[in-house]
């Protein structure tokens, strides 16, 4: 089996730069690591047009369809948005939406177990200069101050309606990030433990939107511009430090994630040595915001070969490369 890995297509934000998979590539099993778009309808439309077999997780942009000009009654909670995707792409369909909050994190295809969820973060990442102890209250404060997620994401609607006959909307918070992260890890751990206790464990591809490792920090042109301002210090919104946990599960052969754009070429895919001759393939093939040049190293034709557990990448032409990395 060979599967394609893509992330952060942002087809709504990148509407000036349309992206599609050619007709002859749409039957290739595809893994989408979140932020296909900022809302379920656009995501559904793009997937139905471009992917015939695959799995995907949502990203932090899922609630960005909740624009301020919409009446409160028309804005949708996170559970409502997830349900739309789960109903359209069930676990037993050709394309499946995976998320711990919907109860469907697993899909087995051709003897490969795909486990996935958006995952968010545990808000516990540390930095030796600014937050050496990984104090969550500091990370939460910076995240809530900076991230648009909390402007658009709602966890529930409260009734009765107000004076204008519209419900009160309860915004998501960084603590919701942590809850959803914990739920995803719990679901992953349950499936991995059961798989690894079996006589013939299946190889596993683990998929999240937010990275479970911090290796991408310092190796991209998107996040670290914010390091020198305490108010802009929001790395805890981007990743968690769970590399040791990943390496501890021998059945996990490949880990795919996204969220961090403009990753340096050497860090779009690399191997983690796990001891005893084991290695874990890590892939972050994010397209990102094209107008800012985030797609300079993005390659639509990046595949994982499950026979060898190696990356197979078809290089793009010099002409294509010349188009990239230019601000429009």
Q: Distance between termini?
A: 38 Å
Output the structural class: alpha/beta
Question: Low-confidence stretches at least 5 residues in length (pLDDT < 50)?
Answer: 226-232
CATH architecture: 4-Layer Sandwich
- Using only C-alpha atoms, the radius of gyration works out to 19 Å
- Count of distinct strands: 14
Shape: globular
Number of helices: 8
Number of domains: 1
Biggest sheet architecture: 6 strands, mixed
CATH class: Alpha Beta
Mean pLDDT over all positions:
90
Question: What share of the residues lie within helices?
Answer: 10-25%
CATH topology-level fold name: Purple Acid Phosphatase, chain A, domain 2
Multimeric organization: single chain
**Order of SSEs:** EEHEHEEEHHEEHEHEHEEEEH
The largest beta-sheet arranges its strands as: 4-3-2-1-13-14
The share of residues in extended strands comes to: 15-25%
In short:
The chain has 328 residues and is α/β, with parallel strands linked by helices. The protein has helices at residues 40-50, 78-88, 136-146, 149-152, 174-196, 243-248, 265-268, 318-323; strands at 2-6, 29-33, 54-57, 95-97, 106-109, 112-116, 154-158, 168-171, 204-207, 252-256, 269-275, 278-283, 302-305, 310-313.
How does this model look, in words?
The protein is an alpha/beta fold and 328 residues long. It has a single domain (2-323), classed as Purple Acid Phosphatase, chain A, domain 2, CATH 3.60.21. Helices cover 23% and strands 20% of the residues. It has 8 helices and 14 strands. It has helices spanning 40-50, 78-88, 136-146, 149-152, 174-196, 243-248, 265-268, 318-323; strands spanning 2-6, 29-33, 54-57, 95-97, 106-109, 112-116, 154-158, 168-171, 204-207, 252-256, 269-275, 278-283, 302-305, 310-313. The strands form 3 sheets. Strands 4-3-2-1-13-14 form a 6-stranded mixed β-sheet. Strand 3, helix 2 (78-88) and strand 4 (95-97) form a beta-alpha-beta unit. The longest helix is centred in the middle third of the chain and has 23 residues, at 174-196. The chain is globular.
């Amino acid at each position: 089996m060979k599967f394609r890995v893509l992330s952060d297509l942002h087809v709504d934000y990148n509407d000036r730069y349309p992206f599609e998979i050619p007709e002859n590539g749409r039957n290739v099993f595809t893994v989408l690591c979140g932020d296909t778009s900022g809302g379920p309808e656009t995501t559904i439309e793009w997937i139905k047009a471009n992917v015939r077999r695959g799995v995907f997780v949502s990203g932090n942009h899922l609630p960005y369809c909740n624009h301020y000009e919409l009446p409160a009654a028309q804005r949708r909670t996170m559970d409502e948005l997830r349900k739309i995707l789960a109903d359209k792409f069930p676990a037993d369909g050709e394309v499946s939406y995976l998320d711990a909050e919907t109860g469907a994190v697993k899909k087995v295809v051709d003897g490969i177990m795909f486990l996935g969820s958006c995952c968010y973060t545990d808000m516990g990442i540390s930095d030796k200069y600014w937050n050496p102890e990984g104090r969550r209250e500091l990370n939460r404060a910076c995240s809530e101050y900076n991230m648009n997620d909390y402007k658009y994401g709602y966890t529930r609607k409260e009734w009765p309606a107000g004076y204008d006959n519209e419900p009160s909307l309860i915004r998501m918070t960084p603590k919701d990030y942590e809850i959803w992260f914990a739920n995803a890890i719990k679901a992953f751990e349950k499936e991995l433990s059961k798989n690894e206790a079996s006589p013939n464990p299946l190889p596993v591809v683990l998929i999240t939107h937010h990275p479970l490792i911090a290796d991408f920090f310092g190796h991209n042109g998107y996040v670290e511009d914010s390091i020198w301002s305490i108010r802009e210090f929001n790395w805890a919104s981007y990743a968690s430090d769970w590399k040791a946990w990943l390496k501890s599960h021998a059945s996990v052969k490949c880990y795919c994630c996204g969220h961090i754009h403009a990753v340096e070429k050497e860090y779009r895919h690399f191997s983690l040595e796990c001891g005893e001759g084991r290695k874990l393939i890590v892939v972050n093939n994010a397209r990102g915001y094209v107008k800012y040049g985030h797609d300079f190293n993005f390659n639509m034709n990046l595949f994982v070969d499950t026979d060898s557990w190696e990356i197979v990448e078809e290089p793009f032409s010099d002409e294509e490369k010349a188009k990239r990395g230019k601000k429009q």
